[in-house]
Amino acid sequence: MSTTQTEATLDTRPTVKQDVIFARTGSGVIFHNASTGFQLAGASAYDFARKVIPHLDGRTRVLEIRDALPQQHQQTFLTLVDSLTRYGFVRTEEPGDNEVCLSAAEEAHFEAQINYIAHYQGGARRRFHQVRTARVVVLGSDETARWVVLGLLRNGFANIGAEAELLDPDTSGGAIRDELSELASGGVPASVTSVDASSLNWSAIGACQAVVVCGDGSATRSSVLLKAGIPAGVSLLSATRVGERVIVGPLMSMSVPGCLTCALLRLGANDSPERLADCVELWTGISGATLPGIERRGSRPVAAMLGNLLAYEIFRQVSDLMPPESKGAVIVQHLGSADVSTEPLVAHPRCARCAQLLPPTEGELYGVIPEIEPRVEAASDESEEPNEQNRPNRFQAIFGPNVGLLAQFDDAADEQLPVRVGRVIVGIAPGDRRRVTGFDVHTTFAARTRAVCAATAAYALAMGIAPTADPEDPAIPIVGAGRFDISVLERPVPPRDWVRAVTFLGRSDIAIPAAAAFSTGPRNQDGLFHRSGAGVAAAPSLAQAVGSAVVSALALGALMHRISDQGTRLVDQVSVMADDQLAYLRSSAVNLGADLDLLDLGADIGVSVVLARAVGATGEPLWSLGSGLNWRQAATDALCQTIGQLQTGQGNDSGVPTLAAFHPWSLVPADTIAAPLAKATTFDQLRGDLRVAGRDLALVDIGGADLAQGGIRVVRALGFHGGDHR
User: What is the strand order of the sheet 329-334 is part of?
Assistant: First the structure.
């Protein structure tokens, strides 16, 4: 043990955790818990441990214990403390943590609760004292509310507010009064006082540390309290029934984004059509209307489960023991099966409350150096740790079947040859639940990553979140609707609103029509722009999103030019076979019975653009546009995506259209060329090409903070030409 480690250890007050045991072995002593352990060798090691371990109780510093030992045992003691610390078998008490006064009756009656806290955290008595002195208010008069009160009392809370109906001795109040009598007789009295909930406001509730809302109308009550503004230092937790599910959480506080409204918005977007009626019923109640003839009552065992769950969440929050499960998440209780699951929750950008609390993402595009996302592969060997790029759970914050931004993967039944298939379900809005597919030549993991990126790009386009711009601001030049590659010049309607963008070349602010940034949705209702999702890219980093968006936008520009000038060239299939990967894909198309064309669209700007097209099994046209800094990658992407459509028989379900109403056979090749396998460029060369051509790109960060929280950034790139700003 180093001198620095020794000095750091000497001033600590370690406590051995409750689940650590030690036993004699033939060569010394072994310390272990359920997962790991270590040994100390020596004939007297066990006897030594038995003498010193009781002194590691969090009250005495290591220095004091060491100095009380004979000199020949002092280094052995320090080695033991170091080993216990490295294996996580001790926790450190802070000075004064155990000086909080608890009565002898409290220590005896609530020994289990104090020991439970002590197992995880230091300052067990101080933390339990916080529980004893906190005031918690329970709103609700059903069986679940009764169990919440009982759970709070049994875990040490001494000051509880509840509705008068809950305290009626003729109903559930009898059990509460019995519990209070038992506590009083044990020398640990508690009180449950009546709260007037008829006029629901924070003044009526009074000063408290937490409020629990459950029972009929819990969503409506929680919404009222949310709109009124949660006071500082108060936690709000609700249990809301939605059909045959109960949504517990999220734990809400004054300035933390993510609330019940966010959870219900996510739930409505993810629910199947059969379940949407449950959400409609709930929103009807929140709006103040009623649906006659509906009475929902859960079983007593489920009420007990929910009540104890809610009480335990408050115990964890008030004692600061560990983050409650409902912090930044919801707990879903299925009433039919009694199954319980926890799902992360990210704030919804359409929640009026939380949209104001989300951190802004604008201003990050100025210094970004664009990258093209490398091909994602899983670790090649089981012993090899995947890097951050390949970490399978890096998107876990936005996944969840009930309240996730993405519901789940849906590719278990798909054949994974000749290309790998990844499919994810994304809930955009109620009734708009999409299955988005991605393909990759090498791994299912990479295909799933492509699907996640495509799905989140579709989500971002639908949300329409971007920094707004004032077209009258003289400091910000505007780019008029007619200057974009996707402009529809026949519709000279003035844009309704504007968003702020950054130019690719100069990294300066400009204002562009919002209808251009979100051309596939209602913000383009006047039809100013072609409905295209090209130029939208999602990636795990902003640099990768910018790079992919730029290349995709330039590819769309090339496609638009080829539609008008018919400068398309057919790629000779024999020359394609010179590349092993392209040869594999070309042969796979033949094996699938498809006659597949590969078209080189060229480009005035040096990006490579390739279109692959084929006829599906039922005669429908299948196609995909591939682009990249090198021709080989562009051709690989185009072939892989088209072969994937042939393989699954589901057409192009990439989330958003590359170009709506485009027919791939409208492109007539002018001639045939050999595959330009060596063609490549760089972003620096692209900048030069753009300057020579008098063109630029507008970059808009459309991802929003909810996607950024899940490790996804989304950028829209739009090509435009020079000329008058207006």
Answer: 191-195, 159-163, 135-139, 210-213, 235-242, 245-248, 329-334, 340-344
C-beta separation of 586 from 576 below 8 A: yes
Beta carbons of 370 and 547 less than 8 angstroms apart: yes
Helices (H), 407-541: 444-463, 514-517
Q: CA 221, CA 205: separation in Å to the nearest integer? A: 12
pLDDT surpassing 90 at residue 389 = no
How far is Cα 130 from Cα 424, in angstroms, rounded to an integer?
45
Q: 696 CB contacts (<8 Å, ≥6 apart)?
A: 503, 504, 505, 506, 690, 719, 720, 722
Q: Which helix H or strand E contains 565, and what residues bound it?
A: helix 542-565
What's the pLDDT score for residue 380? Answer: 40
Tokens representing 607 are 């990006």
Q: Going by DSSP bridges, is the β-strand pair 135-139/210-213 parallel, antiparallel, or unpaired?
A: parallel
Q: Which of 217, 218, 244 lies closest to 333, judged by CA?
A: 244
Identify whether the C-beta of residue 33 lies closer than 8 Å to the C-beta of residue 119.
Answer: no
C-alpha angle 377-380-384 in degrees, rounded to nearest 5? 110
The size of the chain, in residues, is 726
Q: What gap in Å lies between CA 663 and CA 656, rounded to an integer?
A: 16
Mean pLDDT of all residues in 601-624: 87
Q: Measure the N-to-C terminal CA separation of the chain; round to a whole number of Å.
A: 71
How far apart are the C-alpha atoms of 713 and 702, rounded to whole Å?
8
Query: What are the structure tokens assigned to 201, written together?
Result: 């406001």
Helices (H), 431-489: 444-463
- 685, 606 Cβ separation under 8 angstroms: yes
Q: What tokens were used for 460?
A: 């971002």
Predicted confidence (pLDDT) per residue in 161-173, tens digit: 999 888 877 666 6
CA distance 131 to 315: 7
Beta bridge partners of 163: 195
CA-based torsion, 632, 637, 639, 640: positive or negative = positive
Helix (H) or strand (E) holding 314: helix 300-319
Query: Which pLDDT belongs to residue 110?
Result: 94
**Per-residue pLDDT reduced to its tens digit, 229-245:** 999 999 999 999 888 88
Model confidence over 119-171: pLDDT tens digits? 888 788 889 999 999 999 999 988 999 999 999 999 999 999 999 888 877 66
Q: Which domains does the chain show, CATH number per domain?
A: 3-93 (3.90.930.70), 134-356 (3.40.50.720)
Alpha-carbon distance of 12 to 90, in angstroms, equals 11
Can you read off the two tokens belonging to residue 338?
A: 């009694």
Token pair in block for residue 77: 């003691």
Query: CB neighbours (10 Å) of residue 232?
Result: 8
Q: What is d(CA 331, CA 336) in angstroms, rounded to the nearest whole number?
A: 15
CA–CA distance, 510 with 476 (Å, rounded to integer) = 5
Q: How far apart are CA 496 and CA 521, in angstroms?
A: 14
Handedness of CA 334, 340, 344, 345 (dihedral sign): positive
